[in-house]
Automatic annotation (TrEMBL):
This is EAL domain-containing protein. SUPFAM superfamilies: EAL domain-like, Nucleotide cyclase. PROSITE patterns: EAL, GGDEF. Residues 229-362 form the GGDEF domain. Residues 371-621 form the EAL domain. CDD domains: EAL, GGDEF. Residues 128-152 are annotated as: Disordered.
Length: 634
């Protein structure tokens, strides 16, 4: 109530009966009213003070929040502009509302270009690059375009910039049509992925397609083959290329392989598919209608190209190649079958002496199956020790007595019966079993020889692969130690191929064995290409003349003259000479006249089991009809 109205109310209450104002009564009413409202004024004052304090606190909180907001805003800007990825936000009208510095950098945009409200079309026009066609979003048409525009989802877009960079944008479309995009420079990632893909399908040394890529090419070619079209697959293998790596080093071998690849590429031409399948293996896929004439001409061209010498600095290398050929559809209409049959034909080319090509035939498959079965049996034979040694005497012509025996392995198969060495030794070398077999032969021969008289030596053949395994010296030492046999009674026979494989590695091993007192012989002398040169590279204790030189020495003057020359050569070099393959008394007599040191052959005795050795040692001397003084021991 207003003060004036309240006062008039109090005045009316103080009027007496006679109409006069009772001043005392009025005073009391005013004082009473004042006292009633006095407590309200205090409460108001207290409330006002509280409001003032709360207002001050709120002002403080607002200030704190404002400072915190400013800090958060600065932090957001720092994070936004230091992201390694570009960020952009567009509203539902496709106008820019937010972006960071990395976004501008990726697309070469200026600060003026990315002002708020700029449209996507405006920015795209200013970008120094074009969008990849494969990554462009599909055009929206028809009545559903509006609904599609507002549907949420993720889109990928890709931009090829003028400077070669590739920018990928991952666009998240929100339900209201606005979008948030993250942008990244994927140039290095894309190049790395392309490099990985390339390496997964290509040989890094030659740049040729690898086995995986070649299979894909064969698959595609066979699928697209026309009914009257033939497809030839050539599987090539460089003959004895391992010896180049061993003698000249892997780096030199790699450079020669690069030259080989270039020559084969030139021969194959761009119309044929060429690949490197392995270390020294290549393959060519040829299509056409005139097979096998086309592929035969191709094989001859490759052989001519590879027949020329290869050079690395001043070093010269000569190579030969073996090839296996399979033709679709006759030899198979599936990739695996065609590759397998070409490989089978290659195996036959190598088994037939290398340096040639062979076309696949059905008989080859049957032979390969037999070979696989023989390989399985051979592995079982190594495990079960199904071998035994026979011994052929070495006969000293000057002393007219047996001076030693050559150990010759025999395989007694439980089903096949006696398997000739020529049937399983090459296979053992090819599949890597010859090292285990050779180790067994060394131990058994030394054990048997330890039971013979002291003057009887034992000769054991050693293959090139045993030298390559780096375990030969240990195997020899262990065999001698186990048998308690003197090293001077052991003679190791090697062929020229041992030296051809890796002369630099073989010579130290030979010298180490010779220093122990073990005798080293060159077997099959005269059958190789460089036998004389190898005689000068190592001081052999003996040379063994191959039996092919013995057959005609009695009736053929030229053969006799060659034999005499070799015997004189051995004498001049201080090496004993053993002639193999002596089968008649006439041959023995002639060799005795030429003062040959030793002979070996069926005229003395065929190889015999170990139980016959005592009987052989007890036989009387063979008489060739010539008596001569013994030569000084070498």
């Amino acid at each position: 109530m207003k003060a004036e109205a309240l006062f008039w109310q109090q005045c009316s209450q103080a009027v007496t009966a006679d109409g006069s104002v009772d001043a005392q009564r009025l005073m009391e009413l005013v004082i009473a009213t004042y006292r009633v409202h006095e407590s309200d004024y205090g409460e108001i004052e207290r409330s006002a003070e509280t409001l003032l304090r709360e207002n001050h606190r709120l002002r403080g909180n607002i200030s704190t929040l404002s400072q915190a907001f400013d800090g958060q805003k600065k932090l957001f800007e720092i994070i936004l502009n230091n992201l390694p990825l570009g960020l952009s936000v567009f509203d539902s009208d496709q106008r820019l509302t937010l972006s960071n510095i990395r976004f501008r950098q990726l697309f070469d945009l200026t600060d003026e270009d990315v002002i708020a409200g700029a449209t996507i079309a405006d920015l795209t026009a200013k970008m120094r690059g074009t969008e990849s066609a494969s990554a462009k979003p599909g055009r929206r048409t028809g009545r559903h375009s509006s609904a599609n525009a507002r549907s949420s989802g993720i889109r990928r877009r890709e931009w090829l910039m003028d400077d070669g960079r590739i920018i990928q944008s991952m666009v998240t479309i929100l339900s209201d049509g606005s979008n948030i995009s993250i942008h990244a420079d994927i140039t290095e990632d894309r190049r790395a992925a392309e490099r990985i893909t390339y390496l997964a399908h290509h040989d890094p040394l030659t740049g040729l397609p690898n086995r995986i890529h070649f299979r894909e090419q064969v698959d595609a070619t066979l699928t697209e083959r026309k009914p009257d079209e033939q497809i030839a697959l050539v599987h090539l293998n460089l003959d004895r290329f391992k010896s180049i790596n061993n003698t000249m080093g892997v780096s030199v071998g790699d450079k020669i392989l690069q030259q080989v690849a270039e020559r084969i590429r030139a021969s194959a031409g761009s119309e044929n598919s060429l690949a490197r399948l392995g270390s020294d293996e290549f393959a060519i896929l040829q299509t056409g209608r005139q097979q096998p004439w086309n592929v035969t001409a191709l094989a001859e061209q490759i052989r001519r190209e590879l027949s020329g010498p290869f050079f690395h600095g001043e070093k010269q290398v000569e190579l030969s190649v073996s090839m296996g050929i399979a033709v679709a559809p006759e030899d198979g209409e599936e990739t695996d079958i065609l590759l397998k049959n070409a490989g089978v034909a290659l195996s036959h080319a190598k088994a037939d002496g290398r340096k040639r090509e062979r076309f696949f035939t059905g008989e080859m498959e049957a032979q390969m199956q037999l070979r696989h079965a023989l390989e399985a049996d051979l592995r079982a034979a190594v495990e079960n020790e199904e071998f035994e040694l026979h011994y052929q005497p070495l006969y000293d012509l000057s002393e007219r007595r047996i001076c030693g025996f050559e150990a010759l392995i025999r395989w007694n198969h439980p089903v096949r019966g006696r398997v000739p060495p020529m049937d399983f030794i090459p296979l053992a070398e090819e599949v890597g079993l010859v090292v285990d077999i050779g180790r067994w032969v060394l131990r058994r021969a030394c054990n048997d020889a330890a039971l013979w008289p002291e003057g009887i030596k034992i000769a054991v053949n050693v293959s090139a692969i045993q030298f390559s395994s780096s375990e030969l010296t240990r195997d020899v030492n262990e065999a001698l130690a186990a048998a308690a046999l003197s090293p001077s009674r052991l003679e190791l026979e090697i062929t020229e191929s041992v030296l051809m494989e890796n002369l630099s590695e073989v010579l130290p091993i030979l010298h180490a064995l010779k220093e122990r007192g073990i005798r080293i012989s060159m077997d099959d002398f005269g059958t190789g290409y460089s036998s004389l040169s190898y005689l000068s590279s190592f001081p052999f204790d003996k040379i063994k003349i191959d039996k092919s030189f013995v057959n005609d020495i009695v009736d053929n003057k030229e053969a006799h003259a060659i034999m005499r020359a070799i015997i004189l050569l051995g004498d001049a070099l201080g090496m004993r000479v053993t002639v193999e393959g002596v089968e008649t008394a006439a041959q023995l007599a002639l060799l005795e006249c030429e003062e040959c040191d030793e002979i070996q052959g069926y005229h003395i005795s065929p190889p015999r089991p170990v139980c016959d050795v005592p009987h052989l040692l007890s036989l009387p001397p063979k008489n060739g009809g010539v008596r001569r003084l013994p030569k000084a021991k070498r």
